Amino acid sequence: MTAIPNIISAQKAFFKTGKTIAISERLKYLKALKNEIITHEQAIYDALQKDFKKSEFETFISEFGLVISELNLAIKNLKKWSRPKRVTASILTFPSSDYIYYNPYGTILIIAPWNYPFLLAMEPLIMAIAAGNTVVLKPSELTKNTSQLLTDIIENVFPKDYAIAVQGGVETTTTLLSQKWDYIFFTGSVPVGKIVAQAAAKHLTPVTLELGGKSPCIVDASIDLKLVAKRLVWGKFLNGGQTCIAPDYVIIKAEIKQDFIEILKAEITKAYGENPKTSADFPRIINTKNTKRLAEMLKNVSIIFGGNVDENENYVSPTLIEEPSLESAVMCEEIFGPILPILTYETETDIENIIWHFEKPLALYVFSKEKIFVEKLLKKFSFGGGVVNDTLIHFGNYRLPFGGVGHSGMGAYHGKWGFVTFSHKKPIVKRGTWFDPTLRYAPYKGKLKLMKTLFKIFT
Ligand code: NAD
What we know:
With 459 residues, this protein is an alpha/beta fold. The chain has 2 domains: 225 residues, Aldehyde Dehydrogenase, Chain A, domain 1, CATH 3.40.605.10; 185 residues, Aldehyde Dehydrogenase, Chain A, domain 2 (3-Layer(aba) Sandwich), CATH 3.40.309.10. Strand 1 and strand 2 form a beta hairpin. The longest helix is centred in the N-terminal third of the chain and has 27 residues. The chain is globular and about 80 Å long. It starts with a helix and ends with a helix. It binds nicotinamide-adenine-dinucleotide. Nicotinamide-adenine-dinucleotide binds next to helix 7 and helix 8.
């Protein structure tokens, strides 16, 4: 493996050749990447199965399918997206033609997590390449099979000075972060996000942080609880609960809690059978460390369903917990596993007291038919993004910017938003030469009154 500083200087030199500016060049590589990924479709399913027993179906809907859609979108729209966008000129620049140019930043570091190891590595890479950058990708060290496959795919498609995957753990990431990048795109936990932000600040490197948090799911009494249970069980237990936007906990109107719990139990059993350990559709926890972390959360709380842990197999069953204290371990950090605490509310103030107890979450879900109640929640709380009457699905619309706010992250991507994130928006004014009023030039004596009038009229 080439030393990290050498990789970066080779990529910077390649960027300076201007080859990535050509849209035809970018398209050539995006198409080659698509072919390579399609050729490896089965290998991708196999890698994720080996890494944490993720089913082919879930890998298709939440990794492979989304990556191919993102590639199709970029390939179809790249010419349009990258054209300088004309905007209306201002009286202050008249006569002029004003534009926004979308310029690549240069050499980009992308650090990916393990929980959607293919999607969350490939999706930023696709848009960084579409925007004309070179890329060093650091996939997660916890998903060895998927990370090796990612490395091979990138190596088969790109010259190393254009894009490369560098595998490794904390030590490697620390070395990568000590270098000077033109942009850093990080997906992972809040504590590591802070390390990344500090490293970026040293070189004034712009950064996107896609982090996590405790995303609430509020359920009121106006809605069909069977439908809520179905959509909540899917969103919570997909990927074994290891989803950044998984509903972390439920806040339900107190009077319907008991009915809802019974419906939830039935729904979990319907999805994964009497023994989810034997279900082909229920993934494992990524490693023993995280299995133990989740097992700790199950101590000293009221478990009303599940609660089975097998550390040898990194298995934690779908579990429901009733009314944990906000100070208990399960409520003190992002759960990131198949454990669902159920809290209750009587008044809207109870909801506020719970949500404002935590940092700004990555997502918020509300199930209700009461439009005023829903709008109040959507407008009052600060969170990355959300869904009314379902879970997770805002991730699936590439027209919506996806990202956090405050502790759940900064910046956004998906679809064209990704292209925009990886581009510097460069304002350019092309000034006409046929008309040059003297008003703005010194000497200013006697011109202020007219200037003030013009400002009043035109701004
Ligand atoms: P993580 O922060 O532990 O690791 C992410 C990456 O950072 C990995 O590549 C890892 O090698 C590297 N890393 C780990 N420790 C480091 C250190 N001390 N110094 C430098 N680099 C280090 O996160 P994870 O466990 O892979 O993923 C889970 C977290 O990611 C959850 O908090 C989840 O909410 C969040 N997440 C967010 C999104 C999103 O889109 N917002 C998506 C997926 C996951």
